[in-house]
Amino acid sequence: MDGKRTLLALAISFMILMAWQTYFVQPRQVATQAQSQAVQGQPVQGQPVQAQQVAPDAAATIDNIITPAQPASGVEKSQLSNDVATFNLTNWGARVEGAVLSKYTDVAGPEGKPLVMLQKGIDSIGSLGLVSGDLNPDALYSIVETTPEHIVYSVTTPTGLTVEKRYTLIPGRYDLDLTVSITNGGQAPLRDRAALYVSQDFAGKESKYVFQGPVYFKDNELEDVAVDDAVEDGLKDAGAISWAGCTQKYFMSILVPRNPGDFDISVGPEIGGNASVKVTLTGQMFDLPPGGVHSFTTGVFVGPKAKNAIVPVGLNLDRAVDYGWFQPISGPLMDFLHLLFTMVGNYGVAIIILTTLIKMLFWPLSNKSYKSMARMKELSPKVQILKDKYGENKEKLNKEMMHLWKTHKVNPMGGCLPILVQIPVFIALYRGLMYSIDIRHAPFMFWIQDLAAKDPYYVTPIVMGASMFIQQKLTPASGASEGQMKFMMYGMPVMFTWMFMDFPSGLVIYWLWNNVLSIFQQWLMMRKKSTPKPAAPAIQS
Predict the structure, then answer these.
(1) What DSSP line would sit under 505-537, residue for residue?
(2) Are the C-beta atoms of 137 and 73 separated by less than 8 Å?
(3) 447-to-461, 507, 514 alpha-carbon distances in Å
């Protein structure tokens, strides 16, 4: 197996990864048993079911309540602010309807303004309903207490049920504490379930390379649901769910129960848009005698998928940053990249340093690979002679080729294995840079002022393609057909240039600099090989 074929295999593997991620990535499917928990029977809007009539195994039929238009009057807006975010709340549903992140901007550069999340009319998080229909998620609450640190909403239903929702600000964090207290002021005992909601419109937020849509964390596994599937088919699941909500590439709005346990989750369409989804997290059944109180606390996270923002929340929320199979490698690489940034102050420079260090780490393996490819090239004429002589006898041909390699102490896998060892690291770094919020709006130099955006003038991908062409020219070719050689020489650089046109410029810089280092290493190897060894000194008699 020669070096050209190895590099071709690497290129094909990368392209298959890209094609699979672009066109065939499907959401992780939950168990069929969990999906079958749909409930029969829906409460009629405006006619609450008597509390004692709610069946213990009823699911969150409140999902089907139609969201009414905002009331013409009585709606009050409030804010809770700390040093990183301003949360916009409304008494209509006593929910969060927006958040302004002061540490992040909507566009790169000095003209950027603080980023606004949940800015569409449908977007919200923290609405509360009861499965019985006794409490509509869009009820109009009263504000009973407000301070700079918290705000308390309250509503009483016609059946005498009083619901209080207290949002408490946490200094320096992107999550609010939402404490819900349900008091049974009626004459009959209550048996019900509470449900919390996240709604988001994903229209115009589609991405070919990064998942965006409903997510939840169940049984130590991240589950995601494609927006089209959520709108068309919906999904129901149940189990030990740690958190649930909606995610975008760099930001998310998530419900994080402070006391994780068994929950039901349903994902379906939200009224008002073709790409609007609603995530419903329903707790377990609770019983309340007259005068009894049921309370629980949930975190309401609206913020960035940055490690320093999500790790303090706990409950595995950091798993929302998903690098796929390469998580064990990508995570530490991104941590080290951030460390380098703290030292040099420029993420573009940090990417170049990290790429150089990785290349140095694999330098001996690459040397071994190049040497093996060169030795295989030297044996190519003899291999061709064997093919011409034993072409019809595959068994004899293989035997003679093995004898040839053994005689000349050449390992046919010597050029392949060192490269295969490096592939997971290179792909892990690619995945990390694709998802890393650290490089969002991070400037490099000259015209590249956002490493998370594509090169506006396509200079770096074109130079990257040229570097691939030079690299192929320097790579020893042995045993490859003329067609294969032409594809490797001309086809691969063109294909990779086309693929990288819309990639984040930080990712292109990584790939370009890795090519430059590979060219330098190959040049050194060729120079060393072409330098004649000094003649041995003559032995004087």
Answers:
(1) HHHHHHHHHHHHHHHHHHHHHHHHHHSPPPPPP
(2) no
(3) 14, 16, 21
Cα torsion at 63, 69, 70, 74 (round to 10°)? Answer: -100
Among the listed residues 488, 369, 354, 370, the one whose alpha carbon sits nearest the alpha carbon of residue 425: 354
Q: What DSSP state is assigned to residue 71?
A: P
DSSP of 394-449: HHHHHHHHHHHHHHTT--TTTTTHHHHHHHHHHHHHHHHHHH-GGGTT---BTTB-
Task: Report the distance separating Cα 179 and Cα 297, nearest Å.
Answer: 4
**Alpha-carbon distance 439 to 497, whole Å?**
22
Residue 480 tokens read as: 């490859």
Q: Can you spell out the DSSP letters for 313-351?
A: G-TTGGGGS--GGGHHHHHHHHHHHHHHHHHHS-HHHHH
Question: What is residue 209's predicted lDDT score, i.e. its pLDDT?
Answer: 73
Q: Which two tokens stand for residue 391?
A: 């072409």
**pLDDT number for residue 448:** 94
Q: How far apart are CA 298 and CA 310, in angstroms?
A: 15
Distance CA 226, CA 27 (A): 6
Residue 350 amino acid letter: A
pLDDT tens-digit readout, 156-174: 999 899 999 999 999 999 9
Mean pLDDT of the chain: 80
**Bigger pLDDT: 64 vs 207:** 207
Residue with the two structure tokens 């409460």: 43
Q: Which of 402, 416, 406, 420 is nearest to 372 (CA)?
A: 416
- The answer to whether the CB of 342 falls within 8 A of the CB of 336 is no
Taking the mean position of all CA atoms in its chain, how far away is CA 525?
A: 39
pLDDT recorded at residue 291: 92
Q: If 0-12 CB within 10 Å is exposed, 13-18 middle and 19+ buried, where does residue 446 land?
A: exposed
- The stretch 221-239 carries a mean pLDDT of 90
Q: How far apart, in Å, are the Cα atoms of 466 and each of 9, 419, 492, 497, 515?
A: 20, 21, 11, 9, 10
Band (pLDDT 50/70/90 cuts) for residue 39 is very low
Contact 296, 289 (CB under 8 A): no
pLDDT tens digits along 321-333: 888 888 888 989 9
- Residue 22's pLDDT is what? 43
CB 203 within 8 A of CB 224: no
Give the three-class secondary structure for 45.
coil
